[in-house]
Amino acid sequence: MTIWRFDAIGTTWEIETTNELGADERQLVGAEIDRFDREWSRFRSDSGVTRVGRDGGSISSSDAGAMLDAYLDLSRTTAGAVNPLIADSLAALGYDASYSLVAGDPISAPAGWTDVLRWTAGEATASSPALLDVGALGKGRLVDLVADVLADLPGDLVIDAGGDMRVRGSAVRIGLEHPYDASTAIGVLELQDAALCASAINRRAWGDGLHHVLDARTGVPVRTWAATWAIAPEAMKADAVATALFFDGGPELAATWGVEWVRMSTDGRAERSPTCPAQLFTTRPRA
Amino acid sequence: MIRTTVPTSVRKGAALAGVAGLLVLAGCSGTADAEDQSTDTGTDTSTESTDSGAAAGDYADGTYTADGSYQTPETVESISVTLTIADGVVTEVEVTGDPKARETEQYQGQFIDGISDEVVGKPLDELNVSRVAGSSLTSGGFNEAVDSIKEQAAA
Asked: A99, A126, A153 — which closes off a domain?
């Protein structure tokens, strides 16, 4: 196996293939990542999301319907805790496009986001300026898109976007990183022809209790769950469930979508879906 | 007799705080109903324990119910409080809720396994794994910004 490593969309990617990727394939992967970033990144001044946040209007994108349909499920099952208009709440705490990381007062995201935002399969339209953040599932979506670009590539394939990954061909043994001790794992699992997405509060954190997983209803970072993992055929759904698992309703969404999962609380307890294939290193305390 | 039915022990503190607020509300409405000489300047005459034997009739006897809600980090909980007042004294308090918080038994059933298992981490280098999944690695601007904050904090 050979590994192509690069930085994109704010994280480090590794694409592992049986045979080294050629220049053409790398160019196609790079172009797809750039297209997605130009449409959906709130960290670029020239993106569609930034323009709609400033002026309102539309983003033409083949990702609009798939992502916003999934957001609708996320929002409903978590009773509004997950919301694609969370960007201003993140910015209020300092996680803004210029990474000021200076926290002001929390603000909630607009509960009526479906009144502001309308979409079709290929276009999202905001009736007034509305800043989107598709962070709950966008990276998973992009992993799927890159997998599609490499769909005809012979041999094994691992796409790892900084911990959100999709595997094709041979199984890969993966450790579930302990959110408070990156030298240890809380469990292991074998991933084959599937995606695994993880989310945790230990990175993308910038101060006392300040990290990137917010409850949209309050604009305040979550405190109950420290780390989540979700396994699904597609990375976007795994990514979305990994986000939903920080809130009530996440396990129900996972059951509806057929996604397996693990999560660890901030006080060190683990839970998982009833048929989750992961092996966890846990002990059951005496009652 | 006071009978308080609180659905979960973990949420008791928050639930009781909510009850205290609702008692004030119930007291206020009771005062409005009772046509006494509104010389009471304090507004917090809400608990029976502070009742110093003042004339009965501060509050009209009866059963009062109020609904309230409070925010937890992950949910908005709603509770209903029913008070019974007899001879101006609260004789019964009942708190009922439909808790959404994850501690509740009803929530822990069919979708979740291993509710109380405690994590025991194992060193990665003993596990023979080829990849690690955790929070997304960060790069570029975010790391630089955090480094900048650390420098400012150290200065």
From this structure: A126
Domain of residue A57, residue span: 2-126
Shared-domain flag, residues A95 and A195 = no
- B117-136 residues touching A, CB cutoff 8 A: 117-125, 127-136
Domain of residue A226, CATH code: 3.10.520.10
Would you give per-residue pLDDT tens digits along chain B (155 residues)?
A: 343 333 333 333 343 444 444 333 333 333 333 334 333 333 333 444 434 444 444 667 777 777 666 555 556 666 666 667 777 676 666 666 554 554 444 444 567 777 667 888 888 888 888 888 886 655 555 666 667 666 666 65
CB contact under 8 A, B133 and A174: yes
In a domain, A155, yes or no: no
The values of phi and psi at residue B11, to 5°, are: -90, 10
**C-beta atoms of B118 and A270 within 8 A:** yes
Set of chain A residues whose Cβ sits within 8 Å of the Cβ of B125: 183
> Which of chain B's residues have a Cβ under 8 Å away from the Cβ of A80?
none
Q: Where are the domains of chain B?
A: 12-105
Q: Assess: ipTM above 0.90.
A: no
